[in-house]
Amino acid sequence: MVLGMFRFLCRVSLALAAGTIWALVPPAGAVAFDVDRRPVHEAETHRFTSYADVLESARAAVGLVRAESVRRRDSSDEDLFDELFRRFHGNPGDDESENGNGDEESESPHREFDGEPGRPIPHGIGSGVLISASGLMLTNNHVITSSRGRVADAVRVTLEGLGDFEAEVIGRDRRTDIALLKLAGEDFPYLRLADSDLLRIGDIVFAVGNPLGLGQTSTMGIVSATGRTDLGLLGAGSFEDFIQTDAAINRGNSGGALVDAAGRLIGINTAIFSRSGGNIGIGFAVPVNMARQIALELMDHGEVRRGFLGVSIRNVDPVLHNDRSGVSGVYVQRADADLPAGKAGIRRGDIILAIDGHRVTDVNQLRFRIAGYRPGARVDVLYLRDGEEESVTVELSSLDPPLSAAVSPQTLPGIELLPVRGNKDAADEAADGLRVIRVDRNSPYAELLEEGAVILEINDRKVSSQADIADALRPRAANTLRVRVNGDIGYVTLQPR
């Protein structure tokens, strides 16, 4: 009996030993997985018990920004109603339940409001971050402007432990929602700037600002994504290249700091996606590299000057360009002879591959690359034509002056138009008009008007300027637009919305 039990235990021991050997040394031909069997506290990582030291400098450099405007005597009753509505509820007409911009545009409901002409109207509360000891502060454009786009008459900044300061608006840029302020004073605490191009998904970040009127607040998360473009958060003609984070961002955080684990500024908190208006872990910040370039332009010129290539473009469609399999670039739908690209020889059908040696694979990359140059810059454009790569040097013009005559958002929301002159030598360019150069995906006319189309007439009236559009459109009736698309003439009927 004892001998039998001994033999049984030996067999069990051998079986267990074999199993152990299998676990440690897989048989020949088996897949070998890379397994790190150390507990997480022994892995190659740092252990933190507090981020207080990291956030100390950030908290000192982030302030509460208040914007006020004076009610003017020529303002209508509707203006007053708008300001009252904004004070208590945010922007009238904005669907902030879907994609709020994160700003706190209401004061405490207990503060007395006087809407008489000449009295200040509080219309913006947000955050700002100091980037120099001299008092330069970055914030969002929407924090210091009213619902009608007017710059605040007075901006005041409160810094924790230092008190209130008057701030001058050095300049602002609607296309990136960045504004630059200058605080009265000197020797301010400020944040060092990091290189936001080096961010990786998973990096720890902190959002520092003044949400919901609670006072300065710091929240923690990670970089959820980078390079978020074409979200439609900033409107038509904007340049969106957001950092996405799950660090809690709420109303009032707009213009505040997104800080890395070294306590450096990596972004300006700007917007959120939310159905409730509160944080759901999807927040967006303008990368500090972009904000820094905007700040430099605003300091030098008071505005941002951007290069203009002068082409109507779209992404390469594999179906339409199956004879160019494997091509990654941007398709030129139109290149006017009197605009920079056309002057240099680029024409419809070319596929732009690179700008100054930097590959471009989609429309957004090309727009960002060109916008990074100043007007007058000469850039080398590599493009594909009839299967052969060619290169040409283009002298960029200015983006903003041609667009100064563009139809305002109030006329055709989400549509940007560029006046063009007819080319009498080409059948499809035989009349002046307004070319659609950008269609915001949220525009009510996105399915009616496409980029590259030229509006020739509205209700049988020729149009070639913003004034022509405003005069020809019937605001409360259907309008007939005579449109040229790729040489073909057609008609579009739309109802202004």
Topology, element by element:
Layout: H1 2-24, H2 52-61, E1 62-70, H3 77-89, H4 96-99, E2 120-130, E3 136-140, E4 154-159, E5 163-173, E6 178-183, E7 204-209, E8 217-228, E9 242-245, E10 257-260, E11 265-272, E12 283-287, H5 288-301, E13 307-308, E14 311-315, E15 330-335, H6 340-344, E16 351-355, E17 358-359, H7 363-371, E18 378-385, E19 388-395, E20 397-398, H8 400-403, E21 415-420, E22 433-439, E23 454-458, E24 461-462, H9 466-472, E25 479-485, E26 488-494
Antiparallel strand pairs: 1-2, 1-4, 2-3, 3-6, 4-5, 5-6, 7-8, 7-10, 8-9, 9-12, 10-11, 11-12, 13-20, 14-15, 15-16, 16-17, 16-18, 18-19, 21-22, 22-23, 23-24, 23-25, 25-26
Folded structure, characterized:
The longest helix is centred in the N-terminal third of the chain and has 23 residues, at 2-24. This protein has nine helices and 26 strands. Strands 1-2-3-6-5-4 form a six-stranded antiparallel beta barrel. A six-stranded antiparallel beta barrel has the order 7-8-9-12-11-10. Strands 14, 15, 16, 17, 18 and 19 form a six-stranded antiparallel sheet that branches. Helix content is 18%, strand content 32%. The chain folds into three domains: 53-302, Thrombin, subunit H (Beta Barrel); 307-400, PDZ domain (Pdz3 Domain), CATH 2.30.42; 405-494, Roll (Pdz3 Domain), CATH 2.30.42. Residues 18-23, 74-118, 401-409 and 424-429 have low confidence and may be disordered. It has 497 residues and is α+β, with helices and mostly antiparallel strands. The protein starts with a helix and ends with a strand.
